[in-house]
Please model this.
Amino acid sequence: MPTTQSYDAIIVGAGFAGLYMLHRLRRLGMRAQVYEAGSDVGGTWYWNRYPGARCDVESMQYSYSFDDALQQEWSWSERFASQPEILRYAGHVADRLDLRRDIQFDTRVTSAHFDAKRALWQVATDRGDRVTARFCVMATGCLSAARLPEIPGRDSFAGPTYHTGAWPHEGVDFTGRRVAVIGTGSSAIQAIPVIARQAAHVTVFQRTPNFSIPSRNAPMDAEYENWWKSDYAAHRAKARAMRTGILYGLNDKSALEVSEEERQAEYERRWANGGTAFMGAFSDLITNRQANDTAAEFVRNKIRGMVRDPKVAEILAPKSHPIGTKRICVDTEYYETFNRPNVALVDVAATPIEAITPAGVRTAAGEVAVDDIVFATGFDAMTGALAAIEIRGRDGIDLAAKWAEGPRTYLGLMSAGFPNLFMITGPGSPSVLSNMIVSIEQHVDWLTDCIAHLRARGLDTIEPTQEAEDGWVAHGNEVAHRTLYPSAASWYMGANIPGKPRVFLPYIGGVGVYREKCDAIAAAGYEGFRLGGQNQAAAAE
Model:
């Protein structure tokens, strides 16, 4: 039944951010309500059930750190956890902390309007709920707004179509089927090898090749697990100080200051170990194009060695962007899959897709008949989920309109003109360039401390000053342009969405530096924020 209740806080989303936010607010004695579009907890891991879906952060680090007993009692089965196991973990946490009783599932928040007179947020849902709350927390996720490509005839296809970000929960049986996979980003790179082992034939339509590093996934090593659990606190502390929030060995040498022999040996060692730690091989891979070229060419040569057809290998070898400036992918036998006789690669850059027809996909070179189409075409990253909600702040200002030329935030936590509206891992924070759970915990802890600060002083509202927001946006842009990231047409820049402004969305300064900045701002009495208490009496009426 629709509700018309009042809460201390509304939380949108029941992924890892929403779950932890609910737990922390409860510990403050606050009454919070979570609205979740899915039928269960898990966020991105609830929706992304495509074949081969797994995390690219090692399992021992992709977990909550706030509860040592939880850390000790949970055991991961693999070095890189699969989607079903991560979803079980999210469910375990929700049950362990009895969180579900404050989560309303199968409910989308459609609007959130700020009532300045009462300093309250008025929130509406697609189920008719009309609720108010002092604080509104957007835990909507960075990769939760799945996008379909604007291809003529897309809806005319006679067979089933799927998006990797909204996969059927019952799974899909591709046995004996001819499958088209459109897109070669992270999701596709994980899914294609699994689909190819089942389907009669797979045609991969690639617009832009991506760099991918083998995961070297394996059953969890007991000695490695014990090493983490023997001193989790110290290991976590080191990880939080690192740029990515992930603990792995970083080389402080430049790729250009060592001999060719030493450079190749380091790349070989990282390649053999697997995972995104490859990008830590040298200190300047993301800031120096000449250094980056050495790593990129190493990976291209690996691709040439794995793919038997030289023409296919060259199509798969990225040359249009520096390695790491698009999301570095982690795979299990992705490139080797193109040696299979039932797998074909279509270079969309050379022969563009002209239309989807009832029978398949038509390119400039002809039509490919298929039974199923898988759209692995990504997300409207970081801003898409927020833009889908009508969010109006002080004086009716619309968030989507304010962000029309690109998102503007202070610390990625708040936006000027929107009092008490918090964003967890929003644009302008390290977010997608980090271990997401590390960033989530840091944001939730900071926000909880902030709310406690307001309550202890009888204050009602907090919002950034325009000056502070402008300064943070300028700083984020300045730091980003010290690196090679803006040189790539990536979803980090919004380049995968037609018409979306080209702005570097996350903060590239690093998790450790960012945490220090946030802590210093709080210690200085929330410098750059305007705190207010004039509406306290009216709100209590």
Confidence is low (pLDDT under 50) at residues 535-541.
